[in-house]
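[SOLVED] Predicted holo structure with flavin mononucleotide

Edit: marking solved, answer below. Original request kept for reference. I posted the sequence and ligand SMILES and asked for the 3D complex as structure tokens.
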Amino acid sequence: MKKILAICGSIRADSANLKLLKLLAQWAGSRYDFTIYEGLAELHHFNPDLDVEPAPEAVTALRQQITEADGVIICTPEYVFSLPGSLKNALEWMVSTVIFDGKPTGLITASASGEKGHEQLLLVMRTLSAAYTEQTQLLIKSVKAKFATDGQIKDAATEAALRRLWSAFTKMMDENGN
Ligand SMILES: Cc1cc2nc3c(=O)[nH]c(=O)nc-3n(C[C@H](O)[C@H](O)[C@H](O)COP(=O)(O)O)c2cc1C
């Protein structure tokens, strides 16, 4: 079974981005092994001095999870017109590796506005040589108005866009390797 690792850029307990990822986990059902990464808040601040062998344990664990995943989905809010620091920090730890090289990736920014943050997410992931297409990236604006408190989508156009992304992402992953 193909493995998907989902990384939520918000570490807030009631995060809309986390709810969105939980919805994707439902769509994955028993077809994909879908794991939401839970270590973002505990990752050491990136420091090139520590980016040597062996890297900090939590960093090694995240690198391992990404390596083992057939595809990675990142879903994040925009903070101050940029990526949340905790997500950027995690991605900085990946710069010295090739683990995102060609990795099928779904990139979602779900935020109040999110345009700048989304641009930066795409730029960072392109820099990491992740594989994504126009169809596997999505900006969802006014996210709080579009999701009910139980995490279901209230907005039909958003649901359709998310389903298109899910379909393109899983296709890309299924067609990539075994
Ligand atoms: C410190 C801070 C800065 C924010 N800056 C932005 C911003 O620049 N653009 C934006 O669209 N939303 C911004 N927001 C609002 C978030 O998009 C919104 O709170 C979103 O729901 C957070 O995602 P979450 O529910 O997954 O935690 C900011 C929120 C916080 C707490």
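OP edit: The chain has six helices and five strands. Thanks to everyone who chimed in.
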